[in-house]
Amino acid sequence: MSLLEICQWLQDTDVGTQIRESIFFFPIIEGTHVLALGVSVGAVLWWDLRLLGFTMRDKPISQMQSNIFKWMMPGFVVMMITGVLLFWCQAAKAYNSIFFRIKVIALILAGINILYFHLKTQKGQSEWDTAGIPPTSARMAGLFSILLWAIIIAAGRLMAYTF
Amino acid sequence: MFPIHALRPLFEWAEDTWLGMIIRSHQYPFAVIEVVHLFGLTLLLGGVFLMSLRLFGFIMRDMPVSQVAKQLGWISFIGLVILVTTGLSLFASEAAKCYANDMYWYKMSFFFPAVIFHFTVYRKVTRSANPHPLTRGLTGFLALFLWFGVAVFGRAIGYF
After folding, report:
1. How many contacts, defined by CB atoms under 8 Å, are there between A and B?
2. Which of A4, A21, A154, B62 is a good FRET partner for B79, with 20 to 30 A between their CA atoms?
3. What DSSP string describes B25-37?
């Protein structure tokens, strides 16, 4: 089966159809997806700005992380759940949209950026944890995060125009 | 209660501005302005969310409230500036639709109190080093309630 056929099948399932055609569920799921932006990306922005050395320079990075992450993660979980449901009910339409494809690629890149930072860059963190301006690799992680999330948000919004 | 008929001339005027007409004339401007509006939303809501967490005493307790606000309050402010400029542009391009849409009126019912609150009580509380816990809690709650209220009805506009 081609990817498109799989997406079409997904879209046509009972669950997919129910969500898509409901006057109630779809708006709530989509509305939650947009509003959770503040609780997820909006929060990660503070973290990225710390990584870039733009703000809170006298606060250790590890402290910033432990402060923000536990509140930010539920936001991202909500984004993922609502995102999966939104995709589920219009999988074929999404598949055919160039903006959706851009969004997925950007999401994957954002994931790689996060993994690289946590698995590689953070290994040496004890040396620069209290540095006002962290080393280049950390700053790049912050910069890429901001850029990629901006692309993800833009592509996400523009997707709807192609449906 | 809504729409407020006395304000109708304002909407008619807005709809006929050069700005409104330019945005309506092509397909792209509205979409792009809406995307930027979303960026502003992310900045504002993110800032209000985290600032409220500090006001509740859930994060960054080692840093005085005023210091957290000083270091990061500018993010919310930029977000608000972006939201207002893009918001006015979006409004100008479809003022008539807004007039007829209850959700728009509910959004504004939250927006104006939110702005007034933001530049009075919220500013005062977040600028003091050690506000009373009750004050902090109430301020944080109101900020979240008002701004997320704006966001909910803002999103609802598209559904009605």
Report:
1. 85
2. B62
3. HSSHHHHHHHHHH
Judged by a CB distance cut-off of 8 A, whether residue B156 touches chain A is: yes
Q: Select from B73, B41, B53 the least CA-distant residue to B148.
A: B41
Cα–Cα distance, B4 to A36 (Å, whole number): 31
pLDDT in tens, B52-93: 999 999 999 999 999 999 999 999 999 999 999 999 999 999
| Residue A157 touches partner B, C-beta closer than 8 Å | yes
Of B34, B45, B72, the CB nearest to A46: B72
* C-alpha distances out from residue A74 to A43, A58, A102, A156, B48, Å: 11, 27, 25, 20, 17
Using the beta-carbon criterion (under 8 Å), do A31 and B46 form an inter-chain contact?
Answer: no
Q: In this model, does residue A163 exceed pLDDT 90?
A: no
Low-confidence ranges of chain B (pLDDT < 50): none
User: Average pLDDT over chain B, rounded to whole?
Assistant: 96
- Asked whether the beta carbons of residue A43 and residue B42 sit closer than 8 angstroms, the reply is no
Supply the pTM of this predicted model: 0.95
